[in-house]
Please model this.
Amino acid sequence: MTSRVAETMSVDTIRGVPRGTATVPLSILELATVGEGGTPAEALGVATELARRAEEWGYHRIWVAEHHGMPGVASSSPAVLIAHLAAATRTIRIGSGGVMLPNHAPLVIAEQFGTLHALHPGRIDLGLGRAPGTDMATANALRRSAEVNPDDFPQQLDELTRFLDGSFPPGHPYGKIQAVPREADRPPIWLLGSSGFSARLAGLLGLPFAFAHHFSAANTEPALELYRSCFQPSAVLAEPYAMIGVAAVAADTEQEALRQAMPGALSWLRLRTGRPGRVPTPEEAGAYPYSPLEMEFVRERLSTVVYGDAERVRAGLDELRERTGADELMITTQVHGGAARLRNYELIAKAYGMP
Model:
C-alpha cells in the first residue's frame, strides 16, 4: 500500500492547536455509558452536555466509540452521535474513536463522514479500528457475512480512502462510483489500536496513531515504539503523532474517587466474564461479593486507572505522558451518573488551568 491514504490532509488538521493550557492537548473519549437505574436517552443527554462543557473547559476534541450489544454503552452509531454532538457545539473537534471498519462497507463510511465533514468542516476526525467492538455473532449480524477478516483491514482502509478522495485508478471496478458528498479535502484519518498491527500500519502510512492504554496498558510503550520506529513521513505528518487513551477518575477526595472508580472496575469484570450490563452504582460495587480471583482482577484494573483528587490525577497523567512521550492524552471515565462524569472532567480541566 502506498501513502495515498494520507495524501490530501495537512499537518494542521491533525495537530490542531491545544485549546487549553495543558502541556499537551487533553481530549475525551465518550461511550455514552448507561448507569444502573438510568436509560440510554439519559446517557446520550449527558454525552451532549459533556460535549458542550468540554468545549467551554478547553478540551481539544471529543471522540465517540463504536460498541454493540452492550447494555451499558449507548454509542453504537458513531456517525449519528457525532452529527448530534457537532450540531450542539461550535469549535471543539468531534470524531470517532473509533469506527470499526470491518463492520461496515467502506463506501458507507465514506458517505457518512463526507456528510459530517461537509456539515462541520475542519472539526471532524475519522478514527478507525480493526476489531469488531462486539462478539462474533453480533459482528456477523452487522456484516451479513462470516467471511470478513480483520487482516483485510489495510485493503479496506485503502478502499475507504480512495472513496473519500475519488482516487481509484482507471479500470478499477469502483472507478466510476462517487461517494457523495465529497469535498476538496476530507476528515483526518487516525488509526486506533491495542496491539502492534495498527501501530505498524499507521507508521508506514505516516498517519496519526491512537493507542488504547486504558485497556491494554502493558502494550502501550512497545506499540508506541513500534509506531515511531516504522514511521515514514507523509503529506500528513513530518514526524510521528501519538495519542493514548487513559482511564481517569477525579473527585474532590481520593476516597471519593476510589468509590466512583469501583463501578467501572466491576463493569469490566462482568464484561470479561460474559455478563455485560449497565454501570453499577457505587453502593452496588461496594457490596458485591468479590471472590479472591475477582478482587485480584479489580485491583489489576484499578492499577491502570489514574484516580484521586484533581492534583493527584494531574500528576498521574503527567507521569504517563512523560513516560510514553505521548503527544496527546484522551481521557475516558467510566463512573455511575452524569453529575460525577461532568465533575470529573471539570476538575481535570481546572487542575491544568484550562479555560
